[in-house]
Amino acid sequence: MPFTINVVDSNTDQVIDSNIVNVVITATSISYAGSITATAAPASSYEIFAFTWTPDASFSQIIGYNTLITNTTYGKERRRNKWATPKHSFSLQFINIAGTTASDIIEFYDTKHNLQTFYWSNPDDGVKYKVRFSENTITQEYTGEDNYNITFDLVEVL
């Protein structure tokens, strides 16, 4: 099944090109059969992966802060945020999806090795998050007639 690769400028979060063929990545450049070639920039300054599948079922979102809690000698509690913005986590479920779509999602997971970041757009509010898979596992359940359920968690990378 075909999928879309987006070249995204990580400084502006703007899609540079979404119709990409023949991608070539080196340590100092990214080029493809499109209208531009990005050169003389660290490869890490460009994100070229986007998770484009939308969950069929509901998903959950967790919003968390890293709060430093200090208890004083007088019994009072002081709280201070260590992060300026909250960190988001998502639990995604794909229910009764076709085998080809399940294979594409598993292949995407395998290419990331739980190490690389990618972009995912929240279907609820349309906000695009820079995320990674939060666990070393993904759950795939065969439901019959070449259909599958897939569940996994994503965590935002600040």
Describe the fold and architecture.
With 158 residues, the chain is mainly beta. The chain has 2 domains: 48 residues, no CATH class; 95 residues, no CATH class. The chain is 9% helix and 46% strand. The strands form 4 sheets. Strands 7, 8, 11, 12, 13, 14 and 15 form a 7-stranded mixed beta sheet that branches. Strands 2-1-6 form a 3-stranded antiparallel beta sheet, with no helix packed on it. A 3-stranded antiparallel beta sheet has the order 3-4-5, with no helix packed on it.
Brief descriptors of the model:
158 residues; mainly beta; 2 domains; seven-stranded mixed beta sheet; three-stranded antiparallel beta sheet; 15 strands; elongated
Question: Briefly, what is this?
Answer:
This protein is mainly beta. It is 9% helix and 46% strand. Mean pLDDT is 76; it is low at 24-47.
Task: Work out the strand percent.
Answer: over 45%
Helicity level, as a percent range? under 10%
Structural class: mainly beta
How many runs of DSSP E, i.e. beta strands? 15
Sum up the overall morphology in one term: elongated
Order of helices and strands: EEEEEEEEEEEHEEEE
Q: Strands, helices and their partners?
A:
Elements: E1 7-9, E2 14-17, E3 24-25, E4 29-31, E5 37-39, E6 46-47, E7 50-51, E8 60-64, E9 67-71, E10 77-81, E11 87-98, H1 99-112, E12 118-121, E13 128-133, E14 139-144, E15 147-156
Parallel strand pairs: 7-12
Antiparallel strand pairs: 1-2, 1-6, 3-4, 4-5, 8-11, 9-10, 11-15, 12-13, 13-15, 14-15
